[in-house]
């Protein structure tokens, strides 16, 4: 089978906001405790953070991490996590039926973020709390000094404010599972008033209002319309969340779900534009896709804990999906979608980062390793910065119920003006046929191939474990050559490729 792609240097979708390679850490499961934080671990630094995990997070080059939730934030009291650690209260976390020791709070998380070199995107509790706590937390985090909350931060050892720019106004407030769930009107009002108060403190903040928690919610997309009608003037982004599963055990349909996600993005973009027109506004709201990933492998095994049948364990091993090669292919397609939609999607957070539906796994007092999904995320995060190129693709398609006609080849291309590279991220969705992909690059000079990497396994079900942490890894792809601005590569069935060209 042959597929033809054409790229033109001047045909650009958008400059990519690097925050589409963001991630998310919630106080739940073993994300924090025995994930990023484990003072007794042999690799722990002086602050109690695992250096082995820090190294892996640095490898991913994550530009921003959303914190502290997720569902957790909707009953969280951020003050529980400040002051001397020995005096912090243990609380019951209603979202995940766990005990929260509060040994990590905003100070510890900020130190960790600085160590790994990422920015923070903080969420305020609009479930059980509201405007006052949001403004207090903001003042604690961002005000230099001379007020109650800023001076308390200084007493607690942090002289300089952290200057966090991006704030989420609650989490998934449409969900029946959410503590303090609201109707669209109730939430729209509280979000608008909270945003006004936060902006009264600092006009330059970027605020994210909650969209639906998935496109399958019965209130989608009227939720978006109502919430934006209340908040359009005072927020900057609307959030989208989506999790993926191979519920039919059908690889073709599974890999088609990235296109279902693109339709979701298009619908929200249209809703934004509808409200924008209705309000005769000049301002553009963008999308923060602040939770996305594969999530289904662990669902059965988590039921007992989440139903409360094991009491209130501290840092239980929940949502520990073990990812296979098929999942890595879908993750690669999803990232391609974010690159192709980079004109409207400005933030996207892989949910989550460590242990909880995560690219990085750890054992308590043991090893840390990369899951299969680590690789396409890492390559896109490191090399997907620059301009997303608009590609002309001529690929045969197959039919999938969730997404209609699905091209066998999924591809995105990013041109980096600084180092003059073109970075191609490619998936062959075909289950049995190799594809010959012929790409032409117009208006580029003297292109050379500098990298071709692929995933090493043909077994879609294989995964990495603590015992076999490198069973799935990146390997060098076949040697490639460019003739007359044209590159031909053979894509094995169900394979992933990263190709880097340089002018
Ligand atoms: O990422 C796990 C959970 O998924 C988050 O807490 C919640 O926002 C979503 O439902």
Percent of residues in helices: 25-40%
Identify the overall geometry: globular
Second rung of CATH, namely the architecture of the largest domain = Alpha-Beta Barrel
Sheet with most strands: strand arrangement: 21-20-24-18-17-14-1-19-23-22
Q: Write out the CATH superfamily name of the largest domain.
A: Glycosidases
Number of helices: 11
CATH topology of the largest domain: TIM Barrel
Notes on the structure:
The mean pLDDT is 97. The protein is globular. Helix 3 (131-142) crosses helix 4 (148-155), helix 3 runs parallel beside helix 5 and helix 5 (184-201) packs parallel to helix 6 (222-231). It contains eleven helices and 24 strands. It folds into two domains: 2-10 and 388-502, Golgi alpha-mannosidase II (Immunoglobulin-like, Sandwich), CATH 2.60.40.1180; 17-385, Glycosidases (TIM Barrel, Alpha-Beta Barrel). The protein has helices at 51-60, 106-116, 131-142, 148-155, 184-201, 222-231, 251-255, 257-278, 299-306, 325-340, 374-383, and strands spanning 2-15, 22-24, 64-67, 91-93, 98-100, 119-124, 166-169, 206-209, 237-244, 286-294, 345-351, 360-362, 368-370, 387-394, 397-400, 404-407, 409-416, 421-428, 435-442, 448-455, 474-476, 482-483, 486-491, 495-502. Residues 26, 69-71, 171-172, 213, 291, 351-352 line the site of alpha-L-arabinofuranose.
